[in-house]
Amino acid sequence: MSRNGKSVTFNRNPLLQPCLSRWRARLILAVLLASMTVLVGRSLYLQSVHNEFLQAKGALRYARVLEVPATRGRIADRNGTLLAVSTPVSSIWALPSDARQLEPGQLRQLAQLLDMNVTDLNARIAGGRDFVFLKRQVSPELAARVAALNLPGIYQRGDFRRYYPSGEVMAHVLGFTSVDDRGQEGVELAFERLLAGQAGSRRVIKDRRGQVVEDVQSIRPPRDGEDVALAMDARIQYLAYSALREAVQQHRAKAGSVVVADVRTGEVLALVNAPTFNPNTNNRTHLSGEQLRNRVFTDMFEPGSIMKPFIAAMAIESRKFRATTAIDTNSGSFNIGNRTIHDTHPYRTLTVAEIIQKSSNIGAAKIGLEFEPETMWALFDRLGFGSPPGLGFPGEVSGNLRPAKTWKPIEQATMSYGHGISVSLIQVVRAYLALARDGDLVPLSLTRVDTLPVGVQVFSPQVAREVRQMMETVVEPGGTAVRAQVSGYRVAGKTGTANKIEGGRYVNKYISSFIGFAPVSNPRLVVAVMIDEPSADQYVGGAVAAPVFSQVTEGALRALGVAPDTQLAPLQLTAMGSERTPEGEGM
User: Fold this and answer.
1) Domain residue spans in the chain?
2) Quick one: which of 80, 455, 395, 78 has its CA closest to 266?
3) φ and ψ at 37, to 5 degrees?
4) 3-class DSSP assignment, residue 459
5) Strand partners, 326
6) CATH architecture classification, 234-575
7) Domain 66-99+108-137+155-229 coded CATH 3.30.2110.10
8) Quick check: helix, strand or coil at residue 460?
């Protein structure tokens, strides 16, 4: 190049000289272009052809599928009175990572509202978990007060809490649910699948604090639980509860139970136990098995003389005996091998009807020994003893009915008057339906029955009527349970007083019972009463359990509008012939 006619020469900078040969530069360019092509192709593939992977990874960071709880079904009595309902409540929870920023004053406010110790509240928040419940099932009013504090890291969610308007009165029938609204005892557990329904689900978008910021879609709507209509009558249930509680207190008893059943349908109209509990309490840790268990279904006991009417029915059904057949009762003492059976009062001769009226152990034993063990076992089996009652109630026991081939003569004799066999009170109630229903046996039901059940014939109608007449004499002057009389109604029944067994031996503790039906002209109700270990001055069934039967039966018949079947008259207590000592004592 020339400048002003002069030639100028530029020196080249070594740094500007190419360091790669031409073919190497082209190779690197080709590699870069190929890599870019692969990346673009992979991106197109993931985003347009196979994008599920990226969507799933993204959804993990913001999308959640939440359960939508179903509303638990209601429980009502036969007349529509609500016994169990689910009410909306809230649960208070925290994100510890955010809640640790709370100032001491804020913590004290929160602890005071939640009725918690500040130390315990701090311990929960500092527990190292990502999520923690502070208090479950608080009222909407309390939840609103917590929300008004506007505390960082403290949140709420909607829940349901089960509420039982009848409280202790229906506790053993209904049971209760857990904090997650799942059945734990009673009808709540027995009908869990029906009551619980099926939870739904929804897809949402959450922020880092776990709060829902957007509803995306409903995946499955919840199916609410179905309502359950029980056979129970809340009016009769309260009558039974009040009478039983008074009797247990009066006789300083360990426990007691009452069952009322409808003869026509087998419906259980009332079922109570004492002691009981309040199912509405939040903290059940202090409740014991004595309070929680439903003794009507779970407790076995030797029934004593309430079994004698079945032996009388078997005897008359066989045509070996009639109600007027005389039996020598050996003046109150009867030896079988090296064992001796005693009667409460010494009688020389009693008819079959008088054996029921006077509650003679010897008379019942002599009748029972006239039959093969297999015959007696078959009767007990047909009546439902030795098998669970089949109501689906938690804790049902089958009782203890040993195989007939193992019976010794003394054992067959004692089983004739209710010793050596174990039953539950609900089993006895069902068996007595056969006597009250002209000999046919129907299943019991905890739920309302709209169609009359078909029974299985155990005794002939004539035999059942004859035994009812015998049992009516039990509550008449000269019988063992005059205190079971009901003003305006004819009643029939049988007392029972049995020693309890502890450590394989009979002890001086008793089960006092009475079971009967009314009105005798057209039986409508079977009522059973059992008092466990009465420890006051009286302990026999005619004095302890029979008055409870009278009180409950009278109230129940009037509540149902059952017409009286005899003249209204005062009870004939002056002629009472109640038991003085337990039947079977001295065995």
Assistant:
1) 66-99+108-137+155-229, 234-575
2) 455
3) -65, -40
4) coil
5) 351
6) 3-Layer(aba) Sandwich (3.40)
7) no
8) coil
Question: Helix, strand or coil for residue 370?
Answer: coil
Could you tell me the two tokens for 148? 């008004």
Q: Give the span between the Cα atoms of 84 and 186, in whole angstroms.
A: 12
Q: Please, what sign has the CA dihedral across residues 342, 343, 349, 354?
A: negative
| Angle (deg, nearest 10), helices 546-559 and 234-250 | 160
Q: Where are the alpha helices (DSSP H) in 417-575?
A: 425-436, 461-472, 541-544, 546-559
**pTM of the prediction?**
0.82
Give the span between the Cα atoms of 210 and 131, in whole angstroms: 10
CA distance 402 to 377: 9
The residue written with tokens 């007027």 in the block is 324
Q: Which helix (H) or strand (E) holds 366?
A: helix 361-368
Respond yes or no on whether the N-terminal peptide bond of residue 519 is cis (omega within 30° of 0). yes
Q: Distance between CA 547 and CA 485 in Å, rounded? A: 8
What is the set of active-site residues?
305
Return the half-sphere exposure (C-beta side, CA atoms, 13 A cut-off) of residue 277: 23
The pLDDT assigned to 51 comes to: 66
3-state secondary structure of 112: helix
Q: How far apart are CA 397 and CA 389, in angstroms?
A: 8
Q: Report the 10 Å Cβ neighbour count for 254.
A: 17
The tokens for 400 are 């203890």
Contact between 391 and 446 under an 8 Å Cβ cutoff? The reply is yes
| pLDDT given at position 563 | 95
Regions of the chain where pLDDT drops below 50: 1, 573-587
Alpha carbon separation from 28 to 41, 50, 106 (Å, rounded): 20, 31, 65
C-alpha–C-alpha distance, residues 104 and 119, integer Å: 11
Q: What CA–CA distance (Å, rounded) separates 194 from 84?
A: 14
**CA proximity to 448, closest of 227, 190, 226, 230:** 230
**What token pair was written down for 332?**
């109150």
In this structure, which amino acid lies at residue 182? Answer: R
Tell me the torsion sign for CA atoms 578, 581, 582, 583.
negative
Determine contact, residues 63/203, Cβ cutoff 8 Å.
yes
Gap between the Cα atoms of 445 and 307, Å rounded: 23
Strands 75-76, 228-229: pairing kind: parallel
Closest CA relative to residue 369, chosen from 328, 425, 323, 426: 328
Output b/e per residue, 23-44; b: 16+ Cβ within 10 A: eeeeeeeeeeeeeeeeeeeeee
Question: What are the percentages of helix, strand and coil residues in the chain, rounded to 5?
Answer: 35, 25, 40
pLDDT digits (tens, 9 = 90+) for 244-271: 999 999 999 999 999 999 999 999 999 9
